[in-house]
Every structure is written in C-alpha cells, then in structure tokens.
Design brief:
Layout: E1 2-8, E2 11-15, E3 19-20, E4 27-37, E5 40-44, H1 47-53, H2 58-69, E6 78-83, H3 116-126, E7 131-136, H4 158-177, E8 184-186, H5 204-222, E9 227-233, H6 241-244, H7 252-255, H8 257-261, H9 264-268, E10 272-276, H10 283-289, E11 294-299, H11 309-324, E12 329-334, E13 337-338, E14 353-355, E15 361-363, H12 365-374, E16 382-387, E17 394-398, E18 404-410, E19 416-422, E20 425-431, E21 435-441
Parallel strand pairs: 4-19, 5-6, 5-12, 6-7, 7-8, 8-9, 9-10, 10-11, 13-14
Antiparallel strand pairs: 1-2, 1-21, 3-20, 4-16, 14-15, 16-17, 17-18, 18-21, 19-20
Helix pairs in contact: 2-3, 4-5
Length: 442
C-alpha cells in the first residue's frame, strides 16, 4: 500500500496518485543501510505565541493544540523552552532578579507560570511523553560582565559560575514541582551571537571550563533524569571573530566545538550537540570526530515574517542537510505568532500559524512541511540511505512497524517524474513544480 500526500502553493496536504511501474530514468532506491534513530519533531514555547493564541475562541484554540500535538495529527514530540527571557518574550526577565544573590534565595519562576507553563501544559495534555529541552538566552544580568540582558559575556568567577550551575538545576526542579519534566539542558542559546536581545557570548575555552568544572558535576550530582547537551551552537558566524581573534573560517571547529569536546572531563558530562543556523557548517566535522555523541537540530531558520512558499522550500533543504548529517530531531522556532509576526524589538519572523486581530487562525506553509514529516515519521524510526538522482531531494525513513516514508521535494520550475524501485515495489508519480511530497509505503 502506498499513501501519497502532496503540498503545492495554495493546495496543501492533498491526496495524490501514483502509477505502478518505473517510468523515469531518475529512479530512487534504498541502499539497505540504516543510520541514526529519529526521536521526533517539535517547536519552541514562546510567550508571544501564547499571547497570540489568546485571541482565538476556545474552540479554535483547542483545535490548534489538537492539530499540533495529538499523535493522530501532526504529533509533535519535542518542545523547547527558554530559561528566562528570549527574543520572543513579551518582556525581558529571569528567575534571579536580585543582584549578587549567590545562594539564590530569591529564585522564582513567577513569570513562567503566566505564559510558558500554561502553553506547555496544553501540549502535554495531548503529548504526555513529549521531550522538553531548555536553554538560557541570557544568564541573570548580574552574572554578566555588563549587567544587562542583551550583549555581554559571562563573569568567569568561581562564585558566579557555581551559582549559575545551581541556577540551571533550580529551574529544572521548579518545573518538576509544577509537574513538568525537562529532559535536556542546553548550555547557551547561540553562544557566538552578541545580540540586541537577550544573549551571552562564550568562547570555547570558557564554555569548556563551565561544563567541566561546574554545570556537568552539578547535573551529575543532582541524579535528576537529565541530559546535558552542548547547544545550541550557531557558528561559525562573524560575531565569533571578536573572541577568536579573527580566525579563518576553517578553524572555528577547533576554536569552539573541538576545544570543548576534546577535553575529556567536559565531554564526559555531555550527551550530544545541538546545532542551529551557522552551526550547520561544522556538524559534519563534529560528527566525524565524535561519532559516539548524539546530534539534533535545535531551531529552524525563521525567515522574514512573510511565510512564503520559497522559505518553506528552503527549510526542506535544511531538513535534508541536517538529517543527512546525523540529527535525531528537528525543532521549529515559533509555534504561533500574531499576524504582524513582529518580536517586541521589531524582528519579523515566520511561524507555523498566525493569528489575526479578529481571531482567525491561518496555517502557514511551514506548518504543512513539518506535518509532512512529523505525521508520518514515528519516534524511533531509522534514517535510511538512498541512491539515485532523486537522493539529493529525498529524506527516507523506516518506522518501527516497518513502513518506509519518503519525503521528496521538487524545487524546480517544471513538473518532474519521480520513480521508486525496491525489490517488488515500483511506482512513479508526477511532481508539480515547487511541491513537497510524502510517500508512505506499508
């Protein structure tokens, strides 16, 4: 049995036909090799998304959560959340607002209880086994060289680093008290970006010392069911030259990822590495050097707020790159935004859905792309190796039940014939220009 779902601009998620037999020389086949295990797909729980969803009627809001998180629908199984404010928070905040509070006597998650926690609870009601991972965009400002959320670096002082490691664990424990289990900690969102929104620059050497000497031992001592990841890596970017001394691009792997991972003590605490944006340029080097680690993509590149079909096709190519380089999960950025799609500091970005002022819910092209994968590719599926000219446009998976899922994109301006041949299974489909396809073979 072959199920074929097709999405074209203006006609998404439509059943489509296949014809028996091979009718094209451009034939795809499986090599028989299996690669990494897939753990799921998801997005990030941002305050602006929750705020936008409040404009929906209760019925539409329920339909939104049912669509994204119920297993029979899109079935997201991964969720990201910020530790403190991120660039799509309504305001900047953290859980330790009192300066020099080294015992964290004033630690609290009051702000999280207003938006982030209700957002996550709605998802968990529908996907209770969801894997949640958390990362800070900025430490509490008083822990930085400049006491502000945006820009600046960590104060590399023993008492500050010890307190910051405790801050991570206090956050995880506070969420556990709310009935929410965070399974992964990523050390810093985009450590190579000095941004006008909450951010913090780290050198490879400083992050190595923090992981190996403070955060890693603290996580291990806590005995919490918690993984520590080197994430979310966003370079090489030019921002990093300020720390690295203007090193050539080919040396970024050594100056950051390899500086940390080659240290036996720091590496001993790490489960894997998370990449986003410019991190894709070093994922191949990292995976070759450290095949024992796990890898994930942590934030989809978010466009310009126009939610164009062209950007959706670009994201499909990013998915191809990441899965062909060993990631086990793919995580979108904004789960929802208001229709103007603007952050509190003026950056327009894409989202899975937009919500208009009158409460209309609009499903955007990148939602359908995520659904093409997340609906069909089940947890613990294996990435499959493929051959043929269509291999450059195909991501293949085998689900635990044995079904094979082919995700295929035609990014050309012309219709193309796609043929698949494997043992006793042969079929052909005509793929319209600029279209996305799922073939589920069971």
């Amino acid at each position: 049995m072959i199920e074929h779902i097709q999405s074209t601009q203006g006609a998404c998620w439509q059943p489509a036909e296949v014809q028996p037999g091979v009718h094209s020389e451009d034939t795809l086949s499986l090599t028989g090799k299996k690669a990494q295990t897939v753990r799921g797909f998801g997005g990030c729980f941002n305050e602006l998304g929750w705020h936008a969803l409040q404009k929906l009627s209760p019925e539409k809001r329920q339909a939104y959560f049912d669509e994204l998180f119920l297993p029979q629908n899109t079935g997201f199984q991964f969720g990201r959340l910020p530790i403190g404010a991120n660039d799509f928070s309504m305001q900047w905040y953290c859980s330790s607002e009192v300066p020099e509070d080294y015992e964290l006597e004033h630690f609290q998650i009051d702000r999280d209880q207003q938006m982030t926690i209700p957002f996550i609870r709605e998802a968990l009601q529908r996907s209770p086994e969801m894997t949640l991972f958390a990362s800070p965009w900025s430490p509490p400002p008083w822990m930085k060289t400049r006491p502000v959320y945006n820009y600046g670096c960590m104060r590399m002082e023993e008492k500050v680093l010890r307190t910051y490691a405790d801050y991570f664990l206090r956050f995880v424990e506070a969420y556990r008290e709310q009935g929410i289990s965070i399974r992964q900690l990523h050390v810093q969102n985009e450590p190579m970006a000095d941004q006008k929104f909450p951010s913090c620059l780290w050198s490879g050497a400083d992050m190595r010392d923090f992981i190996g000497g403070y955060l890693g031992p603290a996580v291990k001592k806590s005995r919490l069911p918690l993984e520590l990841w080197l994430g979310t890596i966003n370079g090489p970017f030019v921002d990093f030259e300020g720390i690295a001394g203007g090193a050539p691009a080919g040396e970024y792997f050594d100056l950051f990822e390899n500086t940390i991972l080659s240290d036996k003590q720091a590496r001993s605490y790490l489960t894997g590495v998370g990449f986003q944006w410019g991190g894709k340029h070093v994922i191949e080097q990292t995976r070759i050097a450290y095949p024992e680690l796990r890898y994930m993509q942590t934030e989809s590149e978010y466009g310009d707020g126009k939610n164009s079909w062209t950007q959706m096709e670009y994201i499909f190519r990013q998915m191809w790159l990441y899965f062909h380089h060993g990631v086990e999960s793919y995580v979108y950025w904004n789960l929802a935004l208001p229709s103007d799609s603007v952050s509190t500091w003026g950056w327009q970005q894409n989202s899975l859905v937009t919500v208009t002022e009158d409460g209309t819910l609009v499903w955007q092209p990148e939602f359908y792309l995520m659904k093409h994968l997340s609906h069909f590719v089940k947890k613990n599926a294996k990435v499959l190796s493929v051959s043929g000219r269509w291999s450059a446009n195909t991501i293949a998976f085998q689900n635990p039940d044995g079904s094979v899922v082919l995700e295929v994109g035609n990014g050309m301006d012309i219709e193309r014939s796609f043929s698949f041949a494997q043992e006793c299974m042969e079929f052909t489909a005509e793929l319209p220009p600029h279209s996305i396809h799922t073939f589920c073979i069971s």
